[in-house]
Design brief:
With 100 residues, the chain is mainly alpha-helical. The chain contains four helices and two strands; from the N terminus they run H-H-E-E-H-H.
């Protein structure tokens, strides 16, 4: 575990722990508990995406239907999170896009 801390610890040094209560606050949405997003602005998008994903996963993916029903919602949510991270000066390395 010390290797993980040495390798990734610098990513976490910039996190402001005063944001922790907001990050772990949960709300009850549509009868299920959903975690809020890193930013209040992103929380509604996160809840929409979570609901879409959970429906897709249970009603389609588990039945062998491979569609991308929630892709646009994910892109919107991802853009919001990236903006919020930048505003909070949180540096996260980019993950390379999937190439075909």
């Amino acid at each position: 575990s010390s290797g993980i801390n040495a390798e990734y610890g610098h990513y976490f040094k910039q996190i402001n722990l005063s944001d922790a209560p907001q990050l772990i606050k949960r709300e009850r949405v549509s009868g299920t508990r959903q975690m809020n997003s890193i930013s209040e602005e992103c929380t509604p998008l996160k809840h929409k995406y979570d609901t879409c994903f959970n429906t897709w996963y249970t009603e389609k993916f588990l039945k062998g239907v491979l569609t991308e029903d929630c892709a646009e919602l994910f892109k919107e949510y991802q853009a919001c999170v990236k903006k919020a991270l930048k505003e909070k000066n949180l540096v996260i390395p980019d993950i390379p896009e999937k190439t075909s």
